[in-house]
Amino acid sequence: MHDLHTRRTFLRAAAAAGAAWAAADVVEIEEALAWAAQQTAEQRRDFSVLTAEQAKVLDALTARIIPAVDGRPGAREAGALAFIDRSLSTFNAAQKSLYADGVTDLNRRAAAKWKGTADFAALTAPQQDEIIREIEKSRFFQTARFDTIVGTFALPSWGGNRDYAGWHLLGFDHQPRFQAPFGFYDAEVNRRDKP
Amino acid sequence: MIQSQQAARFQPSETVDFVIVGSGAAGGIIAKELSTAGFSVVVLEQGPRLTETQFDHDEFGTFMQSKLANSPATQPHTFRATPSDKAQKAQAVIYGRLVGGSNAHFTGNFWRLRPSDFNEASRLGGVPGTGHVDWPITYDELEPYYTKAEWELGVSGEPGPFDPPRSRPYPMPPLPVKSSGVLLEKGARALGLHPQPTPMAINSQFYNGRPACQHCGFCLFFMCEFRSKSTSMATMLPLAEATGRCEVRPGSYVARVETNPAGRATGVSYFDEQKRLQLQRAKAVVLCANGAETPRLLLNSESSRFPNGLANSSGVVGKYLMFNTYYGVNAQFEHPVNEFKSVQNTRMVLDYYETDPKRGFYGGGGIDARFGKYPIIFALGGLPPGSPSWGEGYARSLAEQFSRTMFFGTHGTSLPVEANSVAIDPSLKDAWGLPCMRVTYKDHPDDLKNAAFLSAQALQIAQAAGALKTWPEPIEPQSQSVHLLGTCRMGNDPKTSVIDRDHRTHDVRNLFICDGSSLVTSSRGQPTETISALAFRAGEHIAAIAKRGEI
User: What number is the average pLDDT over the span A109-133?
Assistant: First the structure.
């Protein structure tokens, strides 16, 4: 049960990251493709606070804060944006204008640096990083970073960490029970102590 | 399981024998002691009653939304470092707001005090400018109740070389060692120190109808859905209710202790869940509301007869607040330690427990090996200083280091300083219209010197254990704590203390107090077993006083 869950999570992550296809069999590829399609559909759905344009830009921003690397999911795959949208409609409502102004600023900087750019989301990753480096000390970026982290690692019931993708990234295995040995060093001692 | 009678239900207008305010470490134990001794008891708890199916592993809700704690929105308070600073709204004190209190989601560390803790002031000569005094009781007087606490609640452990005398062994063997514990042992032994298993109020085997720990990893600030954590909620309240003489009444926010013209307590006014003011009448009142809410309640219970607050003829109600110090050293290792599994810590070092005048300051403490950071808190600040905070390097570091990082925690003394206090804020009111508390706290210089000393020893242990990278938490003045101690101190002299050696207030014959506020000194950073032992002793003594008709 757990192995299946882990494998699925990995495949979904791999699908989203566009990696590791060679290792997967046909059924798995189909499953992963179906999941990827669902992702796209979910990303197009209406948000309760964010406009489609704001959502697009913030989705790109979260994907640069915690990118998917080495076949592991990142903030986008974990659906951190869904958490941000939900929090802005509830306990973080006071930060709506901070986010709106922050998105406008990102797009303004993108257009000023690269003429004819539609918005921040249209830039390449290195270009996006260049802009983030300009604003990384700002209250908007620090808030977005905090919320991206929460949206990636909080319980899925808060709206993010979809399929525990964030915990998969950390190697945090969430199970109701474990048995010793728990880590490398206690396993090593147990091996040494036993004949 | 306990074959329980129907838990009792009382009308507020009925005069019960005892009303207890607070259902945590002390309140649960005293409720059990008094109800099994034959008295009728109502326990008032401001928070909700949650059952195992409602417990979760919600880090964000728990740590960042105060889901299980006093709410900054409805119960704000203010903080200032010294009386000359302006107090600002803050979250300076945090406590569990649910049936079971802070004890419901404590880590489980269960350290006894040592004989030296009780008479250190006279032995060492005290620290000028502080209220550092001896306890009115000795270790030998409390020892039977430490033993009672360990056996009635359920503690896993094994005595170490410096442990105080004990009349019985621990009821359960230690929990299985984790990688962090193995590393602490390795580093400590290399330095000639004496690591030992950490005593934990968590079952290492089936005990008193509750299962052994399942090692899920969610102890600190979470309730145990397996009931393997030996909290007063899991162990004492069921026994109290099974007597048929005890009612636990959640959603009851206490406003005042009421008194009559003769100066006796007549009961407790509280807001029920519909915010209607109720009066629970009782022959005697026991406050177990924690080291912040107990003094606030006394000060808010002022009257023409008690103009400075109830039981405060000494003027020391709310004073001598102690937080303990908690710092330590983060460390990364080559291989996974997987600290997210099992209990918070399994090994500790108590070689620096005693004050050593040669160090040049008062204080002592312990060092243990811990998990420390759940996923969100790890991602926010669990990487070494200078690590990337976003981007590919950040994501890669999170993935590589979460399972390889641990914490060498240090737990130290706080001196009782008169200015450190819980008082009433002159203007702020809570959502019930009651005056809020104003917390004043500045660590004594010796507390921070002791913390820095312990941190330096922890760093050596981490390095001797083979850590690839180490970075200590900065030693900064504290402005927040979950350890709320010393604010209604015990003593023989009514001019300098609030309660006597039986936990009876010097001023009001039928008003008793037992919780963190009773402590005269701070402990070495793990006060819960002492609060529990005091509660078993107080429960027994209060019952005896009542049976003799002396209330």
Answer: 97
The string of pLDDT tens digits covering residues A36-72 is 445 544 555 679 999 999 999 999 999 999 999 999 9
Contact between B340 and A166 using a beta-carbon 8 Å cutoff = no
Residue B181 located in a structural domain: yes
Q: Dump pLDDT digits (tens) for B264-275.
A: 999 999 999 999
Domains of chain B: total: 2
B270 and B383 inside one domain: no
> A191 falls in which pLDDT band (50, 70, 90)?
confident
* Contact B217/A at CB under 8 A: yes
Q: Which domain holds residue B15?
A: 1-77+91-106+111-154+231-316+487-551
Taking 50 as the pLDDT cut, the residues of chain B under it are: 1
**How much is the pTM?**
0.93
Contacts of A145 in chain B (CB under 8 A): 389-390
- pLDDT score recorded for residue A12: 42
Residue B165 lies in a domain: yes
Q: Do A183 and B337 touch (CB under 8 A)?
A: yes
Query: Does B298 lie in the same domain as B329?
Result: no
Give pLDDT, residue A6: 42
- Is position B17 within any domain? yes
Contact B161, B196 (CB under 8 A): yes
CATH number at residue B377: 3.30.410
Q: In angstroms, rounded to a whole number, what is the distance separating the alpha carbons of residues B500 and B502?
A: 5
Whether A183 sits inside 8 A of B336 (CB atoms) is yes
Contact A154 B59 (CB under 8 A): yes
CA distance to partner chain A, nearest, from residue B286 (Å)? 37
Nearest chain B residue to A83 by CA distance is B60
CB B511 within 8 A of CB B257: yes
